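We modelled each protein-ligand pair independently. The example shown here corresponds to the zinc ion entry; the chain sequence is given first, followed by the ligand as SMILES.
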Amino acid sequence: MPICPECETALDFDEEEVEEGDVIICDECGTEYEVVATDPLELSKVEEGYEDEEEFGEEEEE
Ligand SMILES: [Zn+2]
């Protein structure tokens, strides 16, 4: 089970039940992580209050 880098608590979700783009929230510290890859599982911390919103959800895909 993945560990939250912020508080080192085990993130409570099933790796096999998440998909790319899913957002996982740490129950302990509330940090949000977006699933960027599932094989292997890779999480990207979602920065709150990020000023440059142009980088949010507007990524170009082929
Ligand atoms: Zn945490």
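The chain has one domain: 1-48.
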